[in-house]
Amino acid sequence: MQMRPLVLCAFLCAVASARAADNFAVDPVHSGVHFKISHLGLAWVHGRFNDFSGSFTIDPDDAGKCSFAMNINTSSIDTNNQKRDEHLRSPDFFNVKQFPGITFKSTGLKAIKDGYQVTGDLTMHGATKPVTFTLTGGRKAEFPKGVQRTGYSTEVILKRSDFGMDKFAEALGDEVHIAVSLEGTKR
Amino acid sequence: MPDPMLILGAMAAAGITAAGVVLLGAWVWHNRLSVRTAISGVLGASVGFFIGCWALGPKLRWPPQEDLDRFLFILMPAVLGVEVAATTSLREKQLLPWLLRLLLAGAAAPVLLYQSTFITNLGPGTPEWTPTQTALAFGGLTAALVVVWLSLALLARKTGGRSVPLAVALACAAAAVTVMLSGYASGGQMGLPLAAAVAGAAVASLVLAKGFEGDGLLGLGVVGLFGLLVIGYFFGELAIGHAALLFFGLLFCWLPEMPYLRRFGPRLRGVLRVVLVAVPALLSVGLAQQKFVADSTRTSPASSETSIQDYLDFGK
Question: Domain of B95?
């Protein structure tokens, strides 16, 4: 009979633990995938991807249960110049008819102060490479009423040549500075 | 990315290599019209083309992942294989070489578009084509290639000269520039060593006393041109009208065989053939240049003079 409270306690703990992992869908209206790249070594050209989606799972008590996944539609690239965007979509760069998406899927998260250190596989231009970056954030809000949301952001520098995008190397920098800001709504 | 001098160097390497192999074949096989000298033509142009491409330094991936990888690693070697096979063992039976060529023509577009968003499920909104649209597209492209290839081969057999391969080389050069102006610099530039190699082999074949059987050379040029236009249109921003001008403009080669023009001598008709193909070819280059400038001005008035070439030249 003395076992009953223990079993009940364990059961409640398990339920609480299961509930602690929350699933979120990326809210594209309040999220963004931006980048900048050096032009002639003089200044930065800024751009963004307008079409992306993603989801993430957050368990405040167990980083091992957290995960992030994201898909970006490469043809939605937007640098505020139609001709340049067309060229960026061509096989000289993204080759969007061959590689329509950029995907990221986390393989491991480690809790750090104010966020997570995320490791995962980034697939772009037909090449998959492991990347590690720091996600900061995690504050929560209810907006609009009844919709729970949280957000994270990160900045990471990638070498486009690592993904087989090495054309026009003299004029355009190899390093691409990427800033991702995600707001997710709880599902 | 190569600069103009590198492109010129690649063209020179392609042309000289192609001519060298043809001349070597003529010397080794005593300048006789034979299967061997015919092979030396397609072999020379192929080797010249690949050396020219190598000189341009494209960053290719193996196994092939992109259209350009498949163009250089699969399609063009396949043309060489088919033409060598057609010229050697099967040339006595005209049906068999053309069956091989038909198979190649049918496979060309599917190979170039392999695992692209048009025909493969790669995520939301793909494949872009239904099975019916895919069948129509591939059928239409195959038919276009077969019609142009067959009609030029018949004409080349009829005339026996080098004007047809030279006209094809001219179209390849124009296609290269047009595709580059259409926003696909790395793909378009491959047309320049192709043009140089075909022209080099055709010019060198003039030393052959008894004429030159140029079916293989023609196949390499026509399929290469077709491949360039397909990747330029489906993966770049090449306008369908410009592609049609370049490809079907080759049929102008037949105009000197019309009743009135047929009265001219074979040499004059040969020159006329190249000039007639040059008209749509240059027209497509001009239209592509015009479109490029118009688009650049419309989207970025402050830097309307900036072109892909400016980027290619930067830092050189």
Answer: 4-296+307-313
